[in-house]
Amino acid sequence: MVDARFVGHLQSLRLALTDPRFPAAAVPGALTAQPQARPALLRALDGQAAPAPGGARHGGVTAAGTVGTPHADGLASAGAGARRTGTLDGPRPAADGGPTIPAQPGEGRGRVPGPAGGADDDGAPAPSASPGATERGIGASETDAPVDDRLADEGAGAAPSRAASTPAEPGTDTLPDALAAALDAGDAPVQRPALGVLVAEVPDGPDARRAAEEAVAGVDEEAVRLRGAVKPRDGFFTTFAISPYSRYLARWCARRGLTPNQVTTASLVTALIAAACAATGTRAGFAAAGVLLLGSFVLDCTDGQLARYSLQYSTLGAWLDATFDRAKEYAYYAGLALGAARGGDDVWALALGAMVLQTVRHVVDFSFTEANHDAAANTSPTAALSGRLDRVGWTVWARRMIVLPIGERWALIAVLTAFTSPRVTLTVLLAGCALAACYTTGGRVLRSVTRRAHRTDRAARALADLADTGPLSGAVARLAGAGAVRGPLAPVLAALGAATVTGAALWAPLGSWWPVLAAAGYVVLAGLAVAAPLKGALDWLVPPLLRTAEYATVLVLAARSEVNGALPAAFGLVSAVAYHHYDTVYRIRGGTGAPPAWLVRATGGHDGRTLAVTVAAALLLGGTGQGFTLALTALAVVIAVAVLVESVRFWVSASAGGAPAVHDETGEPA
């Protein structure tokens, strides 16, 4: 729904009317409602309809109604005199990614030119869209909102049509703004995108209209759109070495009809080719791998920028982007290990160690974020100091670089791969990730102990889901019941359990049952740690401590076994389990909750898997030890099949079922 007097940029309307992430969105003079917000919109329309003699309370809206699922980059508009024409989900995007606008009667079909003019797909100059169209904005004749007639038929009555028939008086509130206020006051919050220098307003008279049109003409809309395609907060390498040109690659993709998911897939394929080049073990292969890894990262930045440039957000796309990032990096680690093995150097332990450390770092990030997602009184002296440092320019970039985000990390890996050896690459990577982990975890611990915050039931539930507690520790937690540990002891118990099982795996004789007994103690301690709601100041440490225990136990037992193939099998097992844990995070972030309980039971939980691996080591590490390799391989295959099948089924069905589109706009580097 767009007021007929609207003056502003097309990008303002794109942001308000074509972003599928929000049930309802608005800018001054324009409103859209996705299917989940339409009942509330109908109620708001009923409330706005008034039996005013000769007209309606709100004038100047030539049409109003449902907009369906908008085209990711299209914005249809009816011309002057049109009453109910077109929909927002119908038009095809123009060749330059700009909006297609139905022409006025007798003018033929055209589009609004870009900042430097425009042409049709065949290169001929495009006809003017309508008398009121400008190069960078639209006036009232272009904004008569295209609609679906069903809304008027489903309860709004004839109010929109009566409003359309009555000229608006200067100073009259617009119907879209009034409806947006009504939705906000009800149960359908309205997203209002930040417009910055973009214009979106409903002028009251000729002077105000001229001023608005001058403001529209004074802004380079395409430049604003390109800047908006880049995350406002990103790493140093990404901001200064990639985004200055990847945004233009994103626009190039948009003009050719490519989707973010296609670019994401291209990034994955490029990274897998890079891993294959590294696996050759030749100097040329390592050099090619480094170049291709950087190319994969450029495409990885481009897919998100394309989504923001063309507003093509989706649940499936967010999952693919996050999942493929992890798959690319860990596949590359495996490629380095395979390449080193061809040269007679075994670095599988380093590759697995890098994957374990990086995954635990991410779990720390996820747990801390979820624990404080909606905490009350979310302040601390440490956070205040961090805010003050952010106001000092160079410290911002120094602090972003020290955490070794994905851009810096991949650049480091690519350069070291091309000019050194896999062993040097992985050793430096481990040192850098360890330093980053100490910096971020230490800072978050300080924030937590100095912050007086009350954590919610939702945060406690998210931490419990991230813990991935299986049937064994779950039974211990239920037995603890009312006597469950509360206060600051939950992370202490988790740390004690992790130290017990990893210490036994590291120091006990190979093939002995001491690691099994330690794993049994770990099961009990982990169950006690999660028996009570995780609402303590440091309870967010419980999930990463449990991840450390499980992954490190597998790594240590495989490395100490010195059995041929044990470390690659352990790499596969940890990869499958890590995917399950990442999938849990993405479901929680998407608001869909944790994976189903049957999947957690079927995969054993962290406690069951840790105990199973120690039992396999005790039983099978005698003699050649090949049975241990086979056991790890079989466990990896079973878990991978179970979690992949369920994960793909869930995300595909969620996307097809109209789950809210999501996209990571936090700007926190991965």
Protein described:
- It is a single chain.
- The protein is built from 25 helices and six strands.
- With 670 residues, it is an all-alpha fold.
- The two termini are 38 Å apart.
- Mean pLDDT is 81; it is low at 52-57, 62-136 and 140-172.
- Keywords: Membrane, Transferase, Transmembrane, Transmembrane helix.
- It holds the Pfam family CDP-OH_P_transf.
List keywords for this structure.
two-stranded antiparallel ribbon; transmembrane helix; single chain; mainly alpha; 670 residues; CDP-OH_PTrfase_TM_dom; transferase
Taking pLDDT < 50 over at least 5 consecutive residues as the criterion, the unreliable ranges are 52-57, 62-136, 140-172
What is the CA-atom radius of gyration, in angstroms?
29 Å
Shape: globular
Order of strands, widest sheet: 1-6
Structural class: mainly alpha
Question: What is the tally of beta strands?
Answer: 6
Overall pLDDT confidence: 81
> Count of helical segments?
25
CA-CA gap between termini? 38 Å
Proportion of beta-strand residues: under 5%
Organism: Streptomyces hazeniae
Protein name: DUF5941 domain-containing protein
Pfam families: CDP-OH_P_transf, DUF5941
InterPro entries: CDP-OH_P_trans, CDP-OH_PTrfase_TM_dom, CDP_ALCOHOL_P_TRANSF_CS, DUF5941
